[in-house]
Amino acid sequence: MKPTVHDIANIAGVSLATVDRVLNGRPGVRLVTRGKVEEAIASLGYVRDLAAANLAKSRTYSFVFILPANDNSFMIGLTEEVRGAVARSSFERTDIRIVDVPPFDPDALVAALEAALAEKPAGVAFVAIDAPEVRAAAERLRQAGIPMVTLVSDLPDSSRDHYAGIDNIAAGRTAGSLMGRFLSGPFLGERGATVAVLAGSMLVRDHRERLEGFSTVIAQAYPNVHILPVLEGRDDPVLAETMIADALRRNADIAGIYSLGAGNRGLIRALQKARGPRRPLVIAHELTASTRVALADGIIDAVLNQDAGHEVRSAIRVLKAKADGLPVLAAQERIRIDIFLKDNLP
Amino acid sequence: MKPTVHDIANIAGVSLATVDRVLNGRPGVRLVTRGKVEEAIASLGYVRDLAAANLAKSRTYSFVFILPANDNSFMIGLTEEVRGAVARSSFERTDIRIVDVPPFDPDALVAALEAALAEKPAGVAFVAIDAPEVRAAAERLRQAGIPMVTLVSDLPDSSRDHYAGIDNIAAGRTAGSLMGRFLSGPFLGERGATVAVLAGSMLVRDHRERLEGFSTVIAQAYPNVHILPVLEGRDDPVLAETMIADALRRNADIAGIYSLGAGNRGLIRALQKARGPRRPLVIAHELTASTRVALADGIIDAVLNQDAGHEVRSAIRVLKAKADGLPVLAAQERIRIDIFLKDNLP
DNA sequence: CTGTTAGCGCCTTCAA
DNA sequence: TTGAAGGCGCTAACAG
């Protein structure tokens, strides 16, 4: 039989209340008494029953999720996943509030973090923007003892407790390897091949990191692949379509395209229209309705993906664990870089 | 405030005990009374608090995991993951018993299933062998109302409630696509390329399915790739090494190797020794200590993997849900076909 | 400083 | 067929 607070009380010769005070580190216990109780706890190998504790406290974990009101499929999907968690909240003892903020706006994010701080939730998850003022706001939350998880985009060297997202440098490297190997056959002649890169903005960290990883691998392992200057499509389908169409027109020998941001609908449209003699090899990020179809149709060759559902569930698990001072299972919380070919689509 | 059994009792004008009887479908309630209670439940939108219920029952979920005592790294890792779950069992209200059975032995598996049935656990997970007597034993468990999950290897068209493992046909297809694309460049000349396949045994379903997927894609999309007769290494490192060494010696023009089973240590040793003019392209299954090193060293080009930790955690979650008659989150329980290049190693 | 007591939401005797 | 009362393991007033 697992030991309970009663057993501790008996062995230590104190009352339940005192045991509880010690267990929860509350003041008002003499040092000697505390010692006796802690001894009993250790000797019994006691572990508290969290479910019972939460029942007694009628506790619900109140979390705030701050999400950019971006209208690309990935962010919409992410928000959808959080909504799903909200729907399940009654079963999971959570109370999740979703806060929308304008995208790419550090000040708005800071304001949202401040607002969250004011209501003292049990935890906060947010899609970070890598800016000093955001880092400062995060530090204030930490001072207040509020667990924090960054989602999708990290805030390194900050006081966040955990990052629920992929390693974007590794993702870029993976894209680079795939590009290099896939190109090797049909495209790479004596004079090498040319590759275009479509990003959202070089201001956001994930995009910079993906490009960095990609460029590194290409330079090291595929020196005869030439990368054109980055196109910044601001994750906007219309802009992306124009830029890709232009690039294909000006540069007839583009053999590959790496789309490392969102807004792939525009890219796909441009590719569908510009049917040249030989279609370029395309690697894109995020499995959405449009990239899925493009992959199945052979317009896109590979999709790198981060599982938004996993990220959201992981963020919640981690916030709960941090709120309770419990350890997390690192292996369970690692967000994979999924590689999808048309053959392993879920 | 969430409605409780008290609210139901008040509205229906009955006692808590009666409410409980209705909630748990126990006999001893007049039809009219039952009707009143059910009406109150519906009108309140009541959902029971599982944690409180389990506390009151001091319930622990007793599960049996039947695992083949295979000595390859993957099975050892799988067992390790179950051990991890056993270690966490006090926190998760589970009581997991691990039963080892000789590998590839349907009768032993049937005996283990019978033994499990005898002790009436809350659920059973097992690595299936695709045989009629196993299917029959599974049916007996289902008759007894014991939830069942197949792990890693499925038992299709049977009475198992869930399969925690990957789609092996899709895995084979994925390997085929990668092989075809990777080969296209450096190897595929006018006269095509030759590929060897190393399997454990064509008697186990996963291996058959992987080969099927692989062959299909190669035949359809890469007709000038020629697949040699399958080598069955029985997942034995020593045997595998001999077979691969032999094959490389006899067939100097082997351009690629697909290792779809376990026992990759032997494969790797053979490759290290047989340094020909140009090393073959290698795709293997399961990320283990040895395949990881081989991938990093460039001896293996890609590893397809199933996350054993995820499979075990998923099996437990599903068994719990089935035991409680609750739905499962399909997206969370889907086991991915992970593709690892040296760039996205965890 | 310490103990008593009454719950949290649900289940389970036992008695009526 | 129904209800009253006690308890699961833990917490939180409120007294001493």
From TrEMBL, chains A, B:
Q: What keywords does the record list, in alphabetical order?
A: DNA-binding, Transcription, Transcription regulation
Highest rank taxon of the organism: Bacteria
Q: Which SUPFAM superfamilies match?
A: lambda repressor-like DNA-binding domains, Periplasmic binding protein-like I
Q: Does this UniProt record's set of keywords contain GTP-binding? A: no
Domain HTH lacI-type intervals: 3-57
Gene Ontology molecular function? DNA-binding transcription factor activity; transcription cis-regulatory region binding
What is the protein named?
Answer: Regulatory protein LacI
Q: Which gene encodes it?
A: lacI
